[in-house]
Write a structure and sequence with these properties.
Length: about 240
Amino acid sequence: MIPVFAPTADTTTAHDLVAAAQRLYHTAHHDTGASALFDSLAALDQSILDTLGDDESAATAFWLNVHGALVERARATGQHARRIAGTRRTAADITHDILRADRWRHGLGYLPDPFPSPFARRYRLDKLDERVHFATRIARHAPGLAVTFTAANVDAQLDALTDTYLDHAADYNPDAQVARAPRVCLWYRGDFGGASGIRSLLAAHDVIPADASPRLRYVTPPTLTLPDHDPAPARSDPQ
């Protein structure tokens, strides 16, 4: 059985937390048992979440799952904030304070948050992975692509979601030497390493040739109209 969020740190590992967050995301999609899991997440002692600090992959998977669960909860109930270890957080807080390694949400990706909360200072990821932008946007705008993340596979999962998003939202006109990139790359261009980093991302995901240096245009992607489906059932993450 997938554990709920455990009350003590004595036997709780980072992988236990990821497994519980998987279950939270899955149940929030259905609103079946999600309230009890959110309550157990709220009741966690903050020291338990400290176990994520030694495993960046587990931390990334955990916070992506919590973000997705908060998005699903807001979609179902209109309730955007829930308590995490006693502190009220929203999905946007998780994105900017934690997944973006506490970069300022108004700094175009170039500036750290000038006034980080104690929660953000304690739990923010050590490094920013720009692919989290596509995972969080899919969670918000394309629930039909919902996945629950595991520590063992989070890198491959982020790659797959980025491929899917860019297949839909980016393209290249070799005659005009223009590449269209999703507008999120403009909003947080520092996260992507500026224009050169965005071109590298597009090349890595086969949108443009590796030796191309096109002009960039930023567009709002059309709405993803994929059929909804159940997020992958939560299962224990391999140790």
